[in-house]
């Protein structure tokens, strides 16, 4: 793979908004495909610029962009709506008509609660991550801005604990129900396993979150690459986000410093910019010394289409 960049089956690209995550993720995915790996590029950034970068229309369904390269753009709001619809369908299987309307109102309220979109996205992430090593050799995620992504990748641990509690309580309720029916002399529940769609759904989600947690914390399967520019705020945000991911035991594999002024840029204005930039590059080398670092220059034109991405790939191969 490219210099100092991970070769794991799953690679996340993240960073502050506007630093070039989509460009770098798309270039990495293109290089992966051109090296013979069946590659899927997944965009979860609400800006949905992956399709613009590749100059092809993308949507919620996976489509082939080039030989060996597939791509999909995920809409977090649409995922949340699908997630809520699935919850409602499961509830309808067990809730009495008398309380169904009230339960559905509560579910609709939950749709607008903090974390609803992240939980829905995590479900889709888990589904796509399972394709790495099977349908695809590599899955590359172009993620939303840093804070959102850190919360999302920390969710498997948090949600696993929450789901574990729900499953435990649901099993206790079932056990108490069986005891009551036995005491009352009811025949129901004495033969075989009772159907419980709610418990089935909880256990299925429990297994999914545990699997997602195992995948995102396994350095042999997953790596996170930060993209930043040599400026104060991206450096601060990257340092905090890297520490947060390390606390969640999510492996950070590399840092790409994007839009570095090329040495042949001339003029008084650019000289002053380069002096300031040099200080920030020193800060990056010092504060993010634990991670391999690659520099990508600022190009003299917009990066667009496959040929533009190949310029980025060449810079990644030469970066140091």
In short:
The chain has about 325 residues and is α/β, with parallel strands linked by helices. The protein has helices spanning about 20-35, 50-55, 75-90, 95-110, 115-130, 145-185, 195-215, 230-245, 270-285, 305-320, and strands spanning about 10-15, 40-45, 65, 70-75, 140, 220-230, 250-260, 295.
User: How widely separated are the two ends?
Assistant: 15 Å
What is the overall number of helices?
A: 10
CATH topology: Rossmann fold
In terms of per-residue confidence, which ranges show pLDDT below 50 for 5 or more consecutive residues?
186-193
If classified by CATH, what would the architecture be?
3-Layer(aba) Sandwich
Summarize the main sheet.
Answer: 8 strands, mixed
The figure for the number of domains is 1
SSE pattern, N- to C-terminal: EHEHEEHHHEHHEHEHEH
The residue fraction in helices comes out at: 40-55%
List the topology elements.
Layout: E1 10-14, H1 21-34, E2 39-43, H2 50-54, E3 63-66, E4 69-73, H3 76-92, H4 97-111, H5 116-129, E5 138-142, H6 146-184, H7 197-216, E6 222-228, H8 232-247, E7 252-260, H9 268-287, E8 293-297, H10 305-318
Parallel strand pairs: 1-5, 1-6, 2-4, 2-5, 6-7, 7-8
Antiparallel strand pairs: 3-4
Helix pairs in contact: 1-10, 3-4, 3-5, 5-6, 5-7, 6-7, 6-8
What does this molecule look like?
This protein is 54% helix and 14% strand. With 320 residues, the chain is an alpha/beta fold. It has one domain (10-80, 115-318): P-loop containing nucleotide triphosphate hydrolases (Rossmann fold), CATH 3.40.50. It has an eight-stranded mixed β-sheet with strand order 3-4-2-5-1-6-7-8, sandwiched between helices. Helix 9 links the parallel strand 7 (252-260) and strand 8 (293-297). The model is unreliable at 186-193 (pLDDT under 50).
């Amino acid at each position: 793979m490219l210099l100092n960049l991970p070769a794991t089956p799953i690679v996340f690209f993240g960073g502050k908004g506007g630093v070039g995550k989509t460009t770098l993720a798309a270039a990495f995915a293109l290089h992966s495909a051109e090296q013979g790996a069946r590659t899927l590029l997944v965009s979860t950034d609400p800006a949905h610029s992956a399709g613009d970068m590749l100059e092809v229309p993308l949507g919620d369904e996976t489509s082939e962009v080039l030989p060996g390269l597939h791509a999909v753009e995920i809409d977090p709001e649409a995922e949340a709506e699908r997630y809520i619809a699935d919850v409602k369908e499961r509830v309808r299987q067990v809730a009495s008509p008398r309380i169904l309307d009230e339960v559905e109102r509560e579910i609709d309220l939950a749709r607008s609660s903090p974390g609803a979109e992240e939980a829905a996205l995590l479900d889709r992430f888990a589904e796509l991550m399972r394709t790495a090593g099977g349908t695809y050799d590599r899955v590359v995620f172009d993620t939303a801005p840093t804070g959102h992504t850190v919360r999302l990748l920390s969710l498997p641990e948090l949600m696993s604990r929450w789901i574990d509690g729900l499953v435990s309580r649901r099993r206790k309720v079932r056990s108490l129900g069986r005891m009551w029916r036995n005491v009352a002399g009811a025949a129901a529940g004495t033969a075989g396993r009772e159907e419980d769609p709610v418990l089935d759904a909880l256990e299925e989600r429990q297994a999914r979150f545990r699997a997602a947690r195992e995948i995102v914390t396994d350095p042999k399967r997953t790596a996170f690459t930060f993209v930043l520019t040599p400026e104060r705020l991206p450096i601060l945000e990257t340092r905090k986000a890297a520490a947060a991911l390390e606390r969640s035991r999510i492996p950070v594999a590399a840092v790409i410093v994007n839009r570095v002024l090329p040495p042949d840029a001339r003029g008084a204005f650019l000289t002053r910019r380069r002096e300031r930039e040099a200080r920030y590059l020193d800060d990056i080398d010092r504060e993010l010394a634990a991670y391999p670092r690659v520099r990508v220059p600022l190009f003299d034109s917009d990066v667009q289409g496959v040929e533009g991405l190949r310029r980025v790939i060449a810079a990644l191969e030469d970066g140091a």
